[in-house]
Amino acid sequence: MMDDKVVPELTVDNKIVAELTIPENVAKALLLVSNSSSLEKALEKLIEVAKEAGGRLDLSSKNVVTIVLCLCQSLSSTSYRHLLLLSLKVLRNLCAGEIRNQNEFLQQKGVEIVVDVITSVGFTPDPDCAIIRVGLQLLGNYSVGGGECQCDVWYQLFPHKFLKISGVRSREICDPLCMVIYTCCDGTDGLLTDLCSDQGLPILIEILRTASAVGLKEDWLKLLLSKNCIEGSYISSIFFKLHSYPSVENNGVVTHVADQFVIEQSYLLSILSEILNERIEHIVVSHDFALSIFGILKSAVVVVDFSIRGKSDLPTGSAPIDVLGYSLTILRDICACDHLTSSKEKSSKDVVEVLVSSGLVEFLLDLLRDLEPPTTIRKAMKQDQIKEGAISSSFKCSPYQGFRRDIVAILGNCAYRRRHVQDEIRDKNGIPLLLQQCVVDDDNPFLREWGIWCVRNLLEGNAENQGAVADLELQGTVDVPELAGLGLRVEVDPVTRRTKLVNVP
Fold it and tell me: Which BP terms from GO are recorded (predicted)?
Protein backbone atom coordinates (compact mmCIF):
# COMPACT_ATOMS: atom_id res chain seq x y z
CA MET A 1 0.00 0.00 0.00
CA MET A 2 1.44 3.42 -0.95
CA ASP A 3 1.06 6.38 1.44
CA ASP A 4 0.31 9.80 0.00
CA LYS A 5 3.01 12.37 0.62
CA VAL A 6 3.73 15.87 -0.62
CA VAL A 7 6.56 15.67 -3.10
CA PRO A 8 8.32 19.07 -3.46
CA GLU A 9 10.03 20.57 -6.46
CA LEU A 10 8.16 18.68 -9.16
CA THR A 11 7.92 20.80 -12.28
CA VAL A 12 5.03 21.33 -14.68
CA ASP A 13 5.75 23.56 -17.67
CA ASN A 14 9.01 24.65 -15.94
CA LYS A 15 7.13 25.83 -12.84
CA ILE A 16 7.79 24.31 -9.41
CA VAL A 17 4.59 22.98 -7.83
CA ALA A 18 5.15 22.03 -4.20
CA GLU A 19 1.46 21.41 -3.54
CA LEU A 20 1.12 18.41 -5.90
CA THR A 21 0.32 15.38 -3.73
CA ILE A 22 1.25 11.98 -5.14
CA PRO A 23 2.82 8.85 -3.62
CA GLU A 24 6.52 9.56 -3.16
CA ASN A 25 7.62 6.18 -4.44
CA VAL A 26 5.55 6.70 -7.61
CA ALA A 27 7.37 9.93 -8.40
CA LYS A 28 10.77 8.44 -7.60
CA ALA A 29 10.09 5.35 -9.68
CA LEU A 30 9.13 7.42 -12.71
CA LEU A 31 12.18 9.66 -12.38
CA LEU A 32 14.42 6.63 -11.98
CA VAL A 33 13.05 4.50 -14.82
CA SER A 34 13.23 7.44 -17.23
CA ASN A 35 16.46 8.92 -15.88
CA SER A 36 14.78 12.33 -15.76
CA SER A 37 14.91 15.32 -13.42
CA SER A 38 11.22 16.25 -13.52
CA LEU A 39 7.92 14.43 -13.66
CA GLU A 40 6.92 16.11 -16.88
CA LYS A 41 10.17 15.17 -18.61
CA ALA A 42 9.88 11.65 -17.27
CA LEU A 43 6.46 11.16 -18.84
CA GLU A 44 7.53 12.72 -22.14
CA LYS A 45 10.53 10.39 -22.33
CA LEU A 46 8.42 7.34 -21.53
CA ILE A 47 5.98 8.31 -24.31
CA GLU A 48 8.85 8.26 -26.81
CA VAL A 49 10.39 5.03 -25.52
CA ALA A 50 7.02 3.25 -25.63
CA LYS A 51 6.55 4.10 -29.30
CA GLU A 52 8.94 1.27 -30.19
CA ALA A 53 8.15 -2.41 -29.66
CA GLY A 54 11.49 -2.96 -27.92
CA GLY A 55 10.86 -0.05 -25.60
CA ARG A 56 7.41 -1.37 -24.66
CA LEU A 57 8.85 -4.79 -23.93
CA ASP A 58 11.66 -3.36 -21.78
CA LEU A 59 9.27 -1.19 -19.76
CA SER A 60 6.94 -4.15 -19.21
CA SER A 61 9.52 -5.64 -16.82
CA LYS A 62 9.63 -2.45 -14.75
CA ASN A 63 5.95 -2.22 -13.71
CA VAL A 64 5.57 1.13 -15.48
CA VAL A 65 1.86 0.46 -16.20
CA THR A 66 1.15 0.10 -12.46
CA ILE A 67 3.19 3.18 -11.60
CA VAL A 68 1.50 5.41 -14.18
CA LEU A 69 -1.97 4.16 -13.20
CA CYS A 70 -1.20 5.19 -9.60
CA LEU A 71 -0.14 8.58 -10.90
CA CYS A 72 -3.44 8.95 -12.80
CA GLN A 73 -5.39 8.32 -9.60
CA SER A 74 -3.43 11.12 -7.90
CA LEU A 75 -3.99 13.70 -10.64
CA SER A 76 -7.62 14.47 -9.94
CA SER A 77 -7.18 18.24 -9.79
CA THR A 78 -8.11 20.11 -12.95
CA SER A 79 -4.89 22.07 -12.51
CA TYR A 80 -2.83 19.09 -13.66
CA ARG A 81 -4.62 17.97 -16.80
CA HIS A 82 -1.41 18.32 -18.77
CA LEU A 83 0.27 15.69 -16.59
CA LEU A 84 -2.84 13.54 -16.78
CA LEU A 85 -2.79 13.72 -20.58
CA LEU A 86 0.88 12.74 -20.66
CA SER A 87 0.16 9.83 -18.32
CA LEU A 88 -2.61 8.54 -20.60
CA LYS A 89 -0.31 8.80 -23.61
CA VAL A 90 2.30 6.68 -21.82
CA LEU A 91 -0.31 4.01 -21.05
CA ARG A 92 -1.73 4.19 -24.58
CA ASN A 93 1.70 3.50 -26.10
CA LEU A 94 2.56 0.80 -23.57
CA CYS A 95 -0.64 -1.15 -24.38
CA ALA A 96 -0.10 -1.02 -28.15
CA GLY A 97 0.51 -4.67 -29.03
CA GLU A 98 2.43 -5.63 -25.89
CA ILE A 99 0.61 -8.47 -24.11
CA ARG A 100 2.58 -8.11 -20.86
CA ASN A 101 1.52 -4.50 -20.47
CA GLN A 102 -2.05 -5.38 -21.41
CA ASN A 103 -2.13 -8.08 -18.75
CA GLU A 104 -0.72 -5.70 -16.14
CA PHE A 105 -3.34 -3.13 -17.11
CA LEU A 106 -6.01 -5.80 -16.59
CA GLN A 107 -4.66 -6.88 -13.21
CA GLN A 108 -4.48 -3.28 -11.95
CA LYS A 109 -8.07 -2.55 -13.04
CA GLY A 110 -6.81 0.00 -15.51
CA VAL A 111 -10.11 0.26 -17.40
CA GLU A 112 -11.92 1.39 -14.26
CA ILE A 113 -9.26 4.03 -13.56
CA VAL A 114 -9.27 5.36 -17.14
CA VAL A 115 -13.07 5.42 -17.30
CA ASP A 116 -13.08 7.46 -14.07
CA VAL A 117 -10.64 9.90 -15.67
CA ILE A 118 -12.76 10.23 -18.83
CA THR A 119 -15.95 10.66 -16.80
CA SER A 120 -14.36 13.28 -14.54
CA VAL A 121 -13.66 15.45 -17.60
CA GLY A 122 -17.41 15.59 -18.29
CA PHE A 123 -19.36 15.49 -21.52
CA THR A 124 -20.34 19.13 -21.82
CA PRO A 125 -20.77 20.72 -25.27
CA ASP A 126 -17.07 21.70 -25.04
CA PRO A 127 -15.31 18.93 -23.11
CA ASP A 128 -11.56 18.34 -22.83
CA CYS A 129 -11.41 16.39 -26.09
CA ALA A 130 -7.70 15.57 -25.78
CA ILE A 131 -8.16 13.68 -22.48
CA ILE A 132 -11.18 11.73 -23.77
CA ARG A 133 -9.54 11.01 -27.13
CA VAL A 134 -6.30 9.62 -25.68
CA GLY A 135 -8.23 7.69 -23.02
CA LEU A 136 -10.30 6.02 -25.74
CA GLN A 137 -7.21 5.29 -27.85
CA LEU A 138 -5.71 3.60 -24.78
CA LEU A 139 -8.81 1.44 -24.29
CA GLY A 140 -8.79 0.55 -27.98
CA ASN A 141 -5.13 -0.57 -27.85
CA TYR A 142 -5.82 -2.56 -24.70
CA SER A 143 -8.92 -4.32 -26.07
CA VAL A 144 -6.86 -5.65 -29.00
CA GLY A 145 -5.43 -8.00 -26.39
CA GLY A 146 -8.36 -10.36 -26.90
CA GLY A 147 -11.36 -11.86 -25.15
CA GLU A 148 -10.78 -10.91 -21.50
CA CYS A 149 -9.54 -7.43 -22.40
CA GLN A 150 -12.47 -6.90 -24.78
CA CYS A 151 -15.04 -7.88 -22.16
CA ASP A 152 -13.24 -5.80 -19.52
CA VAL A 153 -13.71 -2.64 -21.61
CA TRP A 154 -17.18 -3.54 -22.85
CA TYR A 155 -18.85 -4.17 -19.54
CA GLN A 156 -17.33 -1.04 -17.99
CA LEU A 157 -18.72 1.22 -20.73
CA PHE A 158 -21.71 -0.49 -22.34
CA PRO A 159 -24.26 0.92 -22.78
CA HIS A 160 -24.53 4.10 -20.71
CA LYS A 161 -20.99 5.47 -20.87
CA PHE A 162 -20.69 4.64 -24.57
CA LEU A 163 -23.96 6.48 -25.13
CA LYS A 164 -22.81 9.58 -23.23
CA ILE A 165 -19.53 9.71 -25.14
CA SER A 166 -21.28 9.18 -28.48
CA GLY A 167 -23.40 12.25 -27.82
CA VAL A 168 -20.37 14.56 -27.92
CA ARG A 169 -20.32 16.09 -31.40
CA SER A 170 -16.57 15.90 -31.91
CA ARG A 171 -14.60 14.13 -34.63
CA GLU A 172 -11.62 13.87 -32.25
CA ILE A 173 -13.77 11.78 -29.91
CA CYS A 174 -15.97 9.93 -32.40
CA ASP A 175 -13.07 8.30 -34.28
CA PRO A 176 -11.46 6.60 -31.24
CA LEU A 177 -14.88 5.73 -29.84
CA CYS A 178 -15.57 3.75 -33.02
CA MET A 179 -12.14 2.15 -32.61
CA VAL A 180 -12.95 0.99 -29.06
CA ILE A 181 -16.36 -0.39 -30.02
CA TYR A 182 -15.01 -2.19 -33.10
CA THR A 183 -11.98 -3.71 -31.37
CA CYS A 184 -14.23 -4.92 -28.55
CA CYS A 185 -16.72 -6.54 -30.92
CA ASP A 186 -14.21 -7.94 -33.42
CA GLY A 187 -14.41 -11.71 -33.26
CA THR A 188 -16.83 -11.60 -30.33
CA ASP A 189 -20.33 -12.33 -31.64
CA GLY A 190 -21.99 -11.80 -28.26
CA LEU A 191 -20.75 -8.22 -27.99
CA LEU A 192 -21.75 -7.51 -31.58
CA THR A 193 -25.23 -8.75 -30.72
CA ASP A 194 -25.26 -6.40 -27.72
CA LEU A 195 -24.37 -3.47 -29.97
CA CYS A 196 -27.29 -4.20 -32.28
CA SER A 197 -29.78 -4.69 -29.43
CA ASP A 198 -32.29 -2.12 -28.20
CA GLN A 199 -29.65 -0.92 -25.73
CA GLY A 200 -26.86 -0.73 -28.29
CA LEU A 201 -28.55 0.76 -31.35
CA PRO A 202 -28.92 4.23 -29.76
CA ILE A 203 -25.10 4.31 -29.51
CA LEU A 204 -24.73 3.67 -33.24
CA ILE A 205 -27.42 6.24 -34.00
CA GLU A 206 -25.59 8.92 -31.99
CA ILE A 207 -22.29 8.02 -33.64
CA LEU A 208 -23.86 8.42 -37.08
CA ARG A 209 -25.41 11.74 -36.12
CA THR A 210 -22.03 12.95 -34.92
CA ALA A 211 -20.22 11.65 -37.99
CA SER A 212 -22.73 13.23 -40.39
CA ALA A 213 -22.29 16.58 -38.61
CA VAL A 214 -18.50 16.71 -38.16
CA GLY A 215 -17.10 14.04 -40.50
CA LEU A 216 -14.49 11.40 -39.68
CA LYS A 217 -10.84 10.88 -40.61
CA GLU A 218 -10.39 7.22 -39.74
CA ASP A 219 -12.04 4.03 -41.00
CA TRP A 220 -13.33 2.55 -37.74
CA LEU A 221 -16.94 3.54 -38.44
CA LYS A 222 -16.71 1.88 -41.87
CA LEU A 223 -15.49 -1.32 -40.25
CA LEU A 224 -18.37 -1.22 -37.77
CA LEU A 225 -20.99 -0.60 -40.44
CA SER A 226 -19.55 -3.29 -42.67
CA LYS A 227 -20.02 -5.83 -39.87
CA ASN A 228 -23.46 -4.64 -38.75
CA CYS A 229 -25.07 -3.62 -42.02
CA ILE A 230 -23.46 -5.21 -45.06
CA GLU A 231 -22.49 -8.57 -43.58
CA GLY A 232 -25.18 -8.48 -40.91
CA SER A 233 -28.88 -7.81 -40.89
CA TYR A 234 -29.23 -4.51 -39.07
CA ILE A 235 -29.35 -1.95 -41.89
CA SER A 236 -33.12 -1.41 -41.67
CA SER A 237 -33.07 -1.01 -37.88
CA ILE A 238 -30.27 1.54 -38.03
CA PHE A 239 -31.53 3.37 -41.13
CA PHE A 240 -35.08 3.96 -39.96
CA LYS A 241 -34.13 4.77 -36.35
CA LEU A 242 -32.16 7.72 -37.75
CA HIS A 243 -35.49 9.26 -38.77
CA SER A 244 -37.29 11.21 -36.07
CA TYR A 245 -40.74 10.61 -37.60
CA PRO A 246 -42.78 7.41 -37.34
CA SER A 247 -42.94 5.14 -40.37
CA VAL A 248 -45.45 2.77 -41.90
CA GLU A 249 -44.89 -0.22 -44.16
CA ASN A 250 -47.11 -1.19 -47.08
CA ASN A 251 -46.19 -4.07 -49.41
CA GLY A 252 -42.54 -3.83 -48.43
CA VAL A 253 -42.30 -0.07 -49.05
CA VAL A 254 -41.57 1.97 -45.93
CA THR A 255 -42.78 5.56 -45.94
CA HIS A 256 -42.67 8.21 -43.28
CA VAL A 257 -45.39 10.42 -41.92
CA ALA A 258 -43.33 13.42 -42.97
CA ASP A 259 -42.73 11.88 -46.44
CA GLN A 260 -39.11 12.81 -46.18
CA PHE A 261 -35.68 11.43 -45.40
CA VAL A 262 -33.05 13.09 -43.23
CA ILE A 263 -29.43 13.90 -43.90
CA GLU A 264 -28.17 11.27 -41.44
CA GLN A 265 -29.85 8.57 -43.53
CA SER A 266 -28.24 9.72 -46.75
CA TYR A 267 -24.91 9.94 -44.91
CA LEU A 268 -25.24 6.33 -43.75
CA LEU A 269 -25.91 5.14 -47.31
CA SER A 270 -22.99 7.19 -48.65
CA ILE A 271 -20.64 5.45 -46.20
CA LEU A 272 -22.02 2.03 -47.14
CA SER A 273 -21.59 2.88 -50.81
CA GLU A 274 -17.95 3.86 -50.15
CA ILE A 275 -17.32 0.59 -48.33
CA LEU A 276 -18.64 -1.48 -51.22
CA ASN A 277 -16.78 0.57 -53.81
CA GLU A 278 -13.49 0.29 -51.92
CA ARG A 279 -13.79 -3.42 -51.10
CA ILE A 280 -15.76 -4.69 -54.07
CA GLU A 281 -13.53 -7.76 -54.52
CA HIS A 282 -13.58 -8.78 -50.86
CA ILE A 283 -16.90 -7.73 -49.36
CA VAL A 284 -19.38 -10.25 -48.04
CA VAL A 285 -22.96 -9.18 -48.71
CA SER A 286 -25.91 -10.58 -46.78
CA HIS A 287 -29.30 -11.16 -48.36
CA ASP A 288 -30.91 -8.99 -45.67
CA PHE A 289 -28.71 -6.05 -46.62
CA ALA A 290 -29.42 -6.33 -50.34
CA LEU A 291 -33.18 -6.63 -49.88
CA SER A 292 -33.24 -3.79 -47.37
CA ILE A 293 -31.45 -1.46 -49.79
CA PHE A 294 -33.94 -2.44 -52.51
CA GLY A 295 -36.75 -1.58 -50.09
CA ILE A 296 -35.16 1.79 -49.30
CA LEU A 297 -34.85 2.47 -53.05
CA LYS A 298 -38.55 1.80 -53.55
CA SER A 299 -39.37 4.12 -50.64
CA ALA A 300 -37.18 6.87 -52.07
CA VAL A 301 -38.82 6.67 -55.51
CA VAL A 302 -42.13 7.49 -53.83
CA VAL A 303 -40.65 10.53 -52.05
CA VAL A 304 -38.38 12.13 -54.69
CA ASP A 305 -39.69 14.89 -56.98
CA PHE A 306 -38.89 13.84 -60.57
CA SER A 307 -40.21 17.02 -62.17
CA ILE A 308 -36.92 18.91 -61.77
CA ARG A 309 -33.80 17.89 -63.67
CA GLY A 310 -30.83 17.55 -61.33
CA LYS A 311 -27.77 19.69 -62.02
CA SER A 312 -25.24 17.96 -59.74
CA ASP A 313 -23.86 14.51 -59.01
CA LEU A 314 -24.09 12.85 -55.61
CA PRO A 315 -24.21 14.15 -52.99
CA THR A 316 -26.75 16.76 -54.05
CA GLY A 317 -27.54 18.14 -50.58
CA SER A 318 -31.10 16.86 -50.81
CA ALA A 319 -31.57 13.93 -48.43
CA PRO A 320 -34.33 12.18 -50.45
CA ILE A 321 -32.39 12.44 -53.73
CA ASP A 322 -29.17 11.28 -52.08
CA VAL A 323 -30.97 8.33 -50.47
CA LEU A 324 -32.27 7.42 -53.93
CA GLY A 325 -28.87 7.78 -55.56
CA TYR A 326 -26.82 5.94 -52.96
CA SER A 327 -29.35 3.11 -52.93
CA LEU A 328 -28.71 2.70 -56.65
CA THR A 329 -24.91 2.85 -56.36
CA ILE A 330 -25.01 0.27 -53.56
CA LEU A 331 -27.16 -2.06 -55.67
CA ARG A 332 -24.85 -1.51 -58.63
CA ASP A 333 -21.84 -2.67 -56.63
CA ILE A 334 -23.71 -5.52 -54.93
CA CYS A 335 -24.62 -6.85 -58.36
CA ALA A 336 -20.98 -6.63 -59.42
CA CYS A 337 -19.65 -8.75 -56.52
CA ASP A 338 -22.36 -11.32 -56.03
CA HIS A 339 -19.86 -14.20 -56.02
CA LEU A 340 -18.88 -13.16 -52.50
CA THR A 341 -22.00 -14.17 -50.62
CA SER A 342 -22.14 -14.82 -46.88
CA SER A 343 -20.91 -18.30 -46.00
CA LYS A 344 -24.15 -18.83 -44.09
CA GLU A 345 -26.06 -18.39 -47.34
CA LYS A 346 -23.88 -20.43 -49.75
CA SER A 347 -26.44 -23.17 -50.06
CA SER A 348 -29.16 -20.77 -51.17
CA LYS A 349 -29.41 -18.27 -54.01
CA ASP A 350 -26.64 -15.74 -54.52
CA VAL A 351 -27.48 -12.16 -53.65
CA VAL A 352 -28.25 -11.08 -57.23
CA GLU A 353 -30.65 -13.98 -57.68
CA VAL A 354 -32.43 -12.89 -54.50
CA LEU A 355 -32.77 -9.33 -55.82
CA VAL A 356 -33.91 -10.45 -59.27
CA SER A 357 -36.51 -12.80 -57.83
CA SER A 358 -37.79 -9.88 -55.75
CA GLY A 359 -38.57 -7.85 -58.87
CA LEU A 360 -35.47 -5.67 -59.21
CA VAL A 361 -35.19 -5.95 -63.01
CA GLU A 362 -38.83 -5.09 -63.70
CA PHE A 363 -38.69 -2.20 -61.20
CA LEU A 364 -35.61 -0.68 -62.86
CA LEU A 365 -36.98 -1.11 -66.39
CA ASP A 366 -40.13 0.74 -65.34
CA LEU A 367 -38.02 3.54 -63.85
CA LEU A 368 -35.96 3.80 -67.03
CA ARG A 369 -39.03 3.70 -69.27
CA ASP A 370 -40.61 6.63 -67.40
CA LEU A 371 -37.55 8.85 -67.89
CA GLU A 372 -37.23 11.41 -70.65
CA PRO A 373 -34.91 10.21 -73.46
CA PRO A 374 -31.16 10.89 -73.25
CA THR A 375 -30.11 14.28 -74.60
CA THR A 376 -28.57 12.79 -77.75
CA ILE A 377 -31.90 11.19 -78.67
CA ARG A 378 -33.92 14.25 -77.70
CA LYS A 379 -31.79 16.39 -79.99
CA ALA A 380 -32.11 13.86 -82.83
CA MET A 381 -35.89 13.70 -82.64
CA LYS A 382 -37.83 15.67 -85.22
CA GLN A 383 -39.29 18.84 -83.80
CA ASP A 384 -42.69 18.14 -85.32
CA GLN A 385 -42.83 14.80 -83.52
CA ILE A 386 -42.03 16.01 -80.05
CA LYS A 387 -40.86 19.28 -78.56
CA GLU A 388 -38.47 19.79 -75.67
CA GLY A 389 -41.22 21.19 -73.49
CA ALA A 390 -43.48 18.25 -74.19
CA ILE A 391 -40.74 15.85 -73.13
CA SER A 392 -40.24 17.62 -69.85
CA SER A 393 -43.94 17.58 -69.01
CA SER A 394 -44.69 14.00 -69.98
CA PHE A 395 -41.57 12.22 -68.74
CA LYS A 396 -39.68 12.10 -65.49
CA CYS A 397 -36.34 13.90 -65.23
CA SER A 398 -33.10 12.57 -63.77
CA PRO A 399 -33.09 14.03 -60.23
CA TYR A 400 -29.28 13.98 -60.13
CA GLN A 401 -26.46 13.72 -62.65
CA GLY A 402 -26.00 10.00 -63.22
CA PHE A 403 -29.42 8.66 -62.24
CA ARG A 404 -30.04 6.99 -65.63
CA ARG A 405 -26.46 5.71 -65.76
CA ASP A 406 -26.80 4.03 -62.36
CA ILE A 407 -30.00 2.23 -63.40
CA VAL A 408 -28.37 0.97 -66.59
CA ALA A 409 -25.29 -0.13 -64.65
CA ILE A 410 -27.35 -2.30 -62.29
CA LEU A 411 -29.21 -3.91 -65.19
CA GLY A 412 -25.93 -4.56 -66.99
CA ASN A 413 -24.39 -6.17 -63.92
CA CYS A 414 -27.48 -8.30 -63.33
CA ALA A 415 -27.45 -9.53 -66.93
CA TYR A 416 -23.80 -10.58 -66.83
CA ARG A 417 -23.80 -14.31 -67.69
CA ARG A 418 -27.34 -14.78 -66.36
CA ARG A 419 -29.47 -16.25 -69.08
CA HIS A 420 -32.75 -15.86 -67.19
CA VAL A 421 -32.07 -12.13 -66.61
CA GLN A 422 -31.24 -11.67 -70.29
CA ASP A 423 -34.51 -13.41 -71.17
CA GLU A 424 -36.53 -11.41 -68.66
CA ILE A 425 -35.30 -8.14 -70.12
CA ARG A 426 -36.23 -9.32 -73.62
CA ASP A 427 -39.65 -10.55 -72.48
CA LYS A 428 -40.36 -7.17 -70.87
CA ASN A 429 -39.43 -5.39 -74.12
CA GLY A 430 -36.34 -3.94 -72.49
CA ILE A 431 -33.90 -4.47 -75.35
CA PRO A 432 -34.97 -1.45 -77.47
CA LEU A 433 -35.01 0.64 -74.29
CA LEU A 434 -31.47 -0.37 -73.36
CA LEU A 435 -30.17 0.14 -76.91
CA GLN A 436 -31.23 3.76 -76.50
CA GLN A 437 -28.84 4.08 -73.57
CA CYS A 438 -25.74 3.52 -75.76
CA VAL A 439 -25.46 7.24 -76.40
CA VAL A 440 -23.94 10.32 -74.83
CA ASP A 441 -26.22 12.05 -72.32
CA ASP A 442 -25.36 15.46 -70.87
CA ASP A 443 -27.21 14.59 -67.67
CA ASN A 444 -25.55 11.20 -67.19
CA PRO A 445 -21.77 11.01 -67.47
CA PHE A 446 -20.51 7.65 -68.83
CA LEU A 447 -24.01 6.56 -69.83
CA ARG A 448 -22.69 5.46 -73.24
CA GLU A 449 -20.04 3.21 -71.67
CA TRP A 450 -22.48 1.62 -69.23
CA GLY A 451 -25.05 1.24 -72.01
CA ILE A 452 -22.59 -0.64 -74.19
CA TRP A 453 -21.63 -2.85 -71.24
CA CYS A 454 -25.29 -3.59 -70.59
CA VAL A 455 -26.10 -4.45 -74.22
CA ARG A 456 -23.00 -6.61 -74.47
CA ASN A 457 -24.15 -8.62 -71.46
CA LEU A 458 -27.66 -8.90 -72.88
CA LEU A 459 -26.40 -10.35 -76.17
CA GLU A 460 -23.57 -12.56 -74.93
CA GLY A 461 -24.41 -16.19 -75.55
CA ASN A 462 -28.09 -15.41 -76.16
CA ALA A 463 -29.20 -16.07 -79.75
CA GLU A 464 -32.77 -15.00 -79.01
CA ASN A 465 -31.63 -11.57 -77.83
CA GLN A 466 -29.29 -11.20 -80.80
CA GLY A 467 -32.19 -12.08 -83.06
CA ALA A 468 -34.44 -9.58 -81.31
CA VAL A 469 -31.95 -6.82 -82.06
CA ALA A 470 -31.61 -7.97 -85.66
CA ASP A 471 -35.41 -7.86 -86.08
CA LEU A 472 -35.75 -4.31 -84.83
CA GLU A 473 -36.99 -1.77 -87.35
CA LEU A 474 -35.07 1.48 -87.31
CA GLN A 475 -37.32 4.39 -86.47
CA GLY A 476 -35.25 6.92 -88.36
CA THR A 477 -34.57 8.99 -85.25
CA VAL A 478 -31.24 7.79 -83.94
CA ASP A 479 -28.65 5.17 -84.81
CA VAL A 480 -26.45 3.31 -82.34
CA PRO A 481 -23.01 3.05 -83.96
CA GLU A 482 -21.61 2.36 -80.48
CA LEU A 483 -22.53 -1.28 -81.07
CA ALA A 484 -19.35 -1.40 -83.19
CA GLY A 485 -17.50 -1.41 -79.89
CA LEU A 486 -19.02 -4.83 -79.30
CA GLY A 487 -17.76 -6.13 -82.64
CA LEU A 488 -21.28 -5.88 -84.12
CA ARG A 489 -22.97 -3.83 -86.82
CA VAL A 490 -26.62 -3.18 -87.64
CA GLU A 491 -27.40 -3.57 -91.35
CA VAL A 492 -30.68 -2.34 -92.85
CA ASP A 493 -32.52 -4.10 -95.66
CA PRO A 494 -33.22 -1.30 -98.22
CA VAL A 495 -36.56 -2.87 -99.23
CA THR A 496 -38.09 -4.06 -95.96
CA ARG A 497 -36.32 -1.50 -93.74
CA ARG A 498 -35.75 -4.35 -91.31
CA THR A 499 -32.38 -4.71 -89.58
CA LYS A 500 -30.04 -7.55 -88.87
CA LEU A 501 -27.08 -7.83 -86.54
CA VAL A 502 -23.84 -8.96 -88.14
CA ASN A 503 -20.25 -9.37 -86.96
CA VAL A 504 -17.82 -6.66 -87.98
CA PRO A 505 -15.15 -8.29 -90.20
Answer: cell division
